[in-house]
Amino acid sequence: MASAPDFGHLFRRASGDDSAGLQAVYCLQEPQSGGQISAPRPVTYVCKASTKKQADEIHRLVWNQNTVPLVVVLTQSEVRLYSAFDWKVGSKPLAIADTIHQVTDKLATVTAAAIDTGDVWRHHAADLDPAKRVEWRLLKNLQDLESILREEGVENRSVAHALIGKFVYLYYLRHRNILSDKLLSEWQLSWSEVSGSTIQVGKFEVLCDKVDSFLNGTVFPIAKSTLRKVGTTILKKVAGIFSGDSSKGQKYLSFSHYDFSFIPIETLSVIYEQFLQTKPGKGGRSVGRNQGAYYTPIPVVNFMIDRMDEIVPLRKGTRVLDPACGSGAFLVQCFRKLAEDRLRDGSKRRGIRPNEIKQLLVDHIHGIDVDEEACRVAELSLNLTLLDYINPPDLLDRRLEEFQLPGLYGTNIVCSDAFSDESRYRRWIDRGGFEWVVGNPPWKPLQLSNSKDKGHGPLLKWLESNKQDKPVGWKQAAEAFLWRATEFAARKSIAGMLIPSMTLFKDVSTAFRAAFFGKHKAEYVANFSNMAEVLFARRSREPSAAVIFRPNMANAPTDSDRQVAVFSPLVANQEPTRPREAGKRVASWTIVMDAGEVQYVSNSDIVSGSAAPFVFAAWGSSLDQRIMRKLQRLATLATWEDKYKLLISEGLKVQSGGKEAERHSELAGKLALNAKSLSTARRLFSLPTYALRTLDKDEVYVPSQSGFQRKEAACNPPHIIVSAARNWAVFESRYVVAIGQHVIASAQSLHGPLKALAMYLNSDVAQYHQFFASPQAGVKRPRYPLESLRTLPLPEPLSTVNPRVIKEWGEVYDQLEAIDSAASAVGGARRRPLLDKLNRQVNQHMGLSELELKRIDEFVNVIDGLKDGKVEERAVRRPEDSEVKAYGTALKLELDGFVYEEGSRQGHNVELFLGDTLGVIRVTQGANRSGVVVHSRDNAASVVVEKSDGLREELASRYAQWRYFNRSLRLFVDDAMYLFKPMQRFHWLQSQAVVDATEIIGLAVEQAGATE
Asked: Could you give the 3-state DSSP secondary structure of residue 481?
């Protein structure tokens, strides 16, 4: 327990007899080969208390620790279960058991089996609201306190933040018993004189001086003149709130309920980073948002550091730099890992001397940031982390060497621009650079109009000087930081940066990707696009990605054998945090890696600069790549554009006035589309009346640089209005201003062909193609580029304008338009057969196999329900028995094809055992007679596991938690292959069966080779 890589310090803090009485921790831990220890993810604390009152106090402390969702407390007379994500005065346990029978009954939801199967999250979803965790309550309290100071006349935010930070620091020292009564007595002080509403300004000044002298005076320094200017009244108010007074006289959570020695320093660091970002900047946005800075969630920090540590271990002698350190979240965790490694060293069983741990910090941890307050918080965070490893009595033991906190600000933590040419940076680089460069740089793309902005001067100068060798798309700061990281890196090093996901996908960054990945060796890419809504706890929904690479190790484009791991997690596969019903979002408090979501992409594909490898790694497979290659052989819509003088255009944008806008009175009275009202619509054939409005005489201004003539011409019928998200396409015979959408129009009045094209655009094939042809699809809320529309493949009847097929397709469109126009209650029932007919008519002309067409159908109608972090019913519902049978049939067909010999009766038997939440597939090879059999009893999956001793033992010993780390687990046991799957529709697709069959064949070949 004490040696856990990422959480050992927390477990040790909770296990003291005078703290939380921690006895055991139940963790999620991925099985690894070679005896390596994977980072655990704590789920449940088991603690021991003497009384019920002490049990309630343990609940408060564990809530403060912000580490586990659940805590079980054993007292002398009962067992209590609490939610460790929520605490308030008078909190009640989730369950109390005072007999053995009650324990088995009331605590059944938190047994090892319940956690391993994921049932615990289903039972306790309502009890585990991440929004009630200590970090969000404390952040709100800090914001409330700042508001009070502002109302009291403290307008200087730096002063307010320094004052608040100083109290957090002092309370941490008090709660750690560093500011003990004994020490205060030596200083001729008492705690009541320097805290609470009885605080004395003079005594408080003495305390600050003494602490500065005792440890070091660089943590949130406040000049005495500033304190006196703040005044006694304000100081007493702040001190009173920290000691338990209610702020503003209202029932806010009292600061006295926080134990700052229990709140992890990394949590404090993140809280402060968000707190500082709430400062209003230009345009009412926070300073953090204006700078493109977003706080880094601790699960992401741990994830990145763990991946980097697997490649270049973080050990003594490994120097770390964060070139945009913010409040120090990455630096704190790196320092933790160094300290924990030293503690695990057998020669350090008696602990680390204070000055040794101090030297570990000074020698290894460095950071740069442009924000002075962020640098001060980073210094505080690192020094508090240092104190975490020091026993308070050691500081007063005169036999030990004298100890003071290091002065990090200005030495290790430098307030400056990472792109400047300061001598300090040159000294760092001249000393050989850093073995680890890690961080979350600003993501803001700099505008050309900001070229004279002094705040971005060094970066803009760097961009200009390096634009040939180190290209950056759209002056994206994060891409520049990736390049800059390589300049700080040592010869043999590892780097990891959290960047906007669009860097991996947008066309404007193609040159960046080609140059960067060509010069530096990509090791690991994590695309968190699908988790944008939940990863940053709704503080930001900007999609992010982690890129881990070896700086200055050039890739050979022809080195196609080398594979790069790309991890693209779906919210639906994050078992601890996925919402249990559609339409909900649950903030992520941990990240688990499902092996099935890690794809291996060839190095040669990545160094090409193409976005396709990352698109297919996130959403596709080799089957999707094969389909797209086939579709690319067809003529495209661009050929029509030339041949029939089509206008393929952005929709006309209109507004009410504006300095750089032209008035076009001829637009008054014209119909305009209100696209927002159609944001959830799919496959439209008629624009509903509620989505149309008439432009008034004032709403006829058009941006001067928008290209009015072309876009206005596209408003003329006949034309097709195409959703920018490609969800629908409507043929229109009226003049319509399609604001914000895309338009296909024809000066030659191609009425019939355009209507047939509109029908085709609503087909599964067209929507599937547009998804994979559009870099932004599946990354940001979809707005596909106009250029992807031009690449749309045309089936032969459209490319040749076959009059018979054009007429047939137009008739189908007319029928669907009539249904949409009527908007009747029974329209849906009549619509479905026509949509099926539409797809059949399109599919027969695409030159695709049945399997390929099935993949398209499943992608558009099932997988699409997982985009953007959604868990739509169509994707996660329990599959029907017939759908499971179809999966099994497809699996058998693929497996039989691999071993097929003319005249042979050998094949595969596939049995599918279905349970409530679990499905098991058993595959055996032999006489091809039984085919595919579905056992659909509710307990069938459990029964097949129980009947196989080997399978049961294998699951219990190595794969008990497979639902978290390998949601399509495959095992060989007793001449049979077993596959395990959650009972969610998207895991049981026929196209998924093809992927599974490929995996089974690979494992079988590997198994046969090992046997030989």
From this structure: helix
% helix, strand, coil for the chain, step of 5? 50, 15, 35
Q: What is the pLDDT of residues 792-815, one digit of tens each?
A: 999 999 999 999 999 999 999 999
Most confident of 147-156, 275-284, 550-559: 147-156
SS3 category, 280: strand
The single residue listed with the structure tokens 């529709």 is: 985
In whole angstroms, give the CA distance from residue 207 to residue 194. Answer: 7
**CB-CB contact of 349 with 306 (8 Å):** no
Token duo for residue 841: 């008519």
Q: State the alpha helices, DSSP H only, in 591-671.
A: 603-606, 612-619, 622-631, 637-643
- Residue 834 burial (CB count, 10 A): 16
In one letter, which amino acid is 950? G
Distance set, CA 229 to CA 151, 164, 347 (Å)? 15, 16, 52
- For residue 973, which amino acid is it? V
Q: What is the mean pLDDT of residues 887-906?
A: 80
Residue 70 and residue 55: Cα distance in Å, rounded?
A: 13
Are 698 and 657 in contact, with CB atoms under 8 Å apart?
A: yes
Q: What is the pLDDT of residues 937-990, one digit of tens each?
A: 878 888 898 888 889 888 888 889 999 999 889 999 888 999 999 999 999 999
Burial 212-235 (b: 16+ CB within 10 A, else e): eebbbebbbebeeeebeebeeebb
The pairing of strands 661-663 and 701-703 is antiparallel
Is the distance from CB of 651 to CB of 737 less than 8 angstroms? yes
Global pTM reads: 0.91
Taking only the tens place, the pLDDT of each residue in 751-760 is 999 999 999 9
> How, if at all, do strands 736-737 and 671-673 pair?
parallel
Ramachandran bin of 196, using left for φ above 0, alpha for ψ from -120 to 50, beta for the remaining angles: left
Strands 544-550 and 489-500, by their bridges, are antiparallel
Question: How far apart, in whole angstroms, are the C-alpha atoms of residue 573 and residue 851?
Answer: 25
Share of the chain above pLDDT 70, in %: 91
